[in-house]
Amino acid sequence: MQDEAQDNEGEKPKRGTGRRLHGAIAHKLGSAIVSGEYAPGDKLEAEVTFSEALNVSRSAYREAVQVLAAKGLVESRTKAGTRVLPRSRWNLLDPDVLAWAFTGEPDIEFIRNLFELRAIVEPAAARLAAERRTKDDLKVMKTALAEMRQKTLATDAGRSADRDFHNAILQATGNDALIVLSASIGAAVSWTTQFKQRSRTLPRNPIPDHVRVYDAIAAGDGDAASEAMRLLVDLALEDTRSSMG
Amino acid sequence: MQDEAQDNEGEKPKRGTGRRLHGAIAHKLGSAIVSGEYAPGDKLEAEVTFSEALNVSRSAYREAVQVLAAKGLVESRTKAGTRVLPRSRWNLLDPDVLAWAFTGEPDIEFIRNLFELRAIVEPAAARLAAERRTKDDLKVMKTALAEMRQKTLATDAGRSADRDFHNAILQATGNDALIVLSASIGAAVSWTTQFKQRSRTLPRNPIPDHVRVYDAIAAGDGDAASEAMRLLVDLALEDTRSSMG
DNA sequence: GCTGGAATATGTCCGACTAATAATCGAGTC
DNA sequence: GACTCGATTATTAGTCGGACATATTCCAGC
């Protein structure tokens, strides 16, 4: 009974895609907006028109728009229609928005910005983790590191272990805001890792960098942890940059 | 242009509250969830029941729930009902979620986490601003600073000028992700400023700290800007802490 | 230029139907 | 008799269509 997508001619993201209908619409519209298909200030078709064009009910369409509005992508006003908001009002760190940003060819400048933010946050997180980590935290990091070493970043399991490692560091900080933020960035960055893998035959072996971070955190050395993480992020950025620009 | 927060909240957030209806419901439910009135894992009343209890249509209620779901607060599944998600899945940095978190008595631990994040991000932003600021950026900062000096933080205009100053710094970094993030945190922090003002008769004069930051950015001295901003954030945290804990 | 009404698109409401699935119950087996 | 597994049922979110309300925009008329 899996969805077979019989006759959706691409233009109509109708039911059967697995997602709930309004979720699928939100995904479609969100991707289109983030990718620049609609420019800020543009007015979307009227609800009745658009929903008919998509072959969905107005209710479903409206719920999708509510989602976009909740993420700051659009704003609806009576009689004026729903318009795309300026990029400055988008919740760029929202996991969904980030995912939509990476559905197409991502903007290189935006990736640079994300890495810059990551280069700010992650070393600081590593420092806090070194100061506050428990034995359990260390154990999680260690197993993730082992898994990562075994599977390499070329596999899904390996990338998953990579995320686990970084998440364990965040968890050790005990700071919810930091965790949420960095998890979003981390997910986005992991999208880019796939780009690296596909276009570069010789990615750097990331294990030694990670081991340095782990050792510093285990030793409780905040300065060393911060520095090691800074190095790791810098190298990752360099790899990504050379595989795109 | 932007008038808001004009709320008359009775027991029933029914029509006529000024906000759009589903927005009012989302606000009410969101605040309740974030404040812990509903614990993670709790199941909300069924849609028909709850919407009737609120005297609103099921459609309006559903659109409100979509907003909450978009922010990671709840998840709906057929037959199982809609349940509050674990805190780790909340988009804590979403502007609305932050606002909801500060409608009631905010959690001190959470405020500490926010300041910790701010203490990481803002100094780094100040450094970038010092390296990249244009003359226009400096002009905006300067006028904001003057306004701030004149009105003091006790007035709305003064707090607004404070935000303008920090936003100008962010703008100068040219990093969208950084701007969005720090704007959210900044807004949240400005809520706490009100707490400071109401419970402390002798708040520190914040102008000298800000001037130090400005001078360093104007001079293009990244290290000094970072250090000055670190100091500013630390002092602000100390003030807030002493006025609450 | 100002005022007031008509046009129009979003906002809200209603009631019915669909679809998915948790919960229940029963057939079959050990 | 207890248990596993599979079909049935009941419940709840999801979707639909249409109606009416409300708020603006826009334009006509003064």
Automatic annotation (TrEMBL), chains A, B:
GO terms for molecular function: DNA binding; DNA-binding transcription factor activity. Keywords: DNA-binding, Transcription, Transcription regulation. It holds the Pfam family FCD. This is DNA-binding FadR family transcriptional regulator. Residues 1-20 are annotated as: Disordered. The lineage of its organism: Bacteria, Pseudomonadati, Pseudomonadota, Alphaproteobacteria, Sphingomonadales. The keyword DNA repair does not apply. Residues 19-87 form the HTH gntR-type domain.
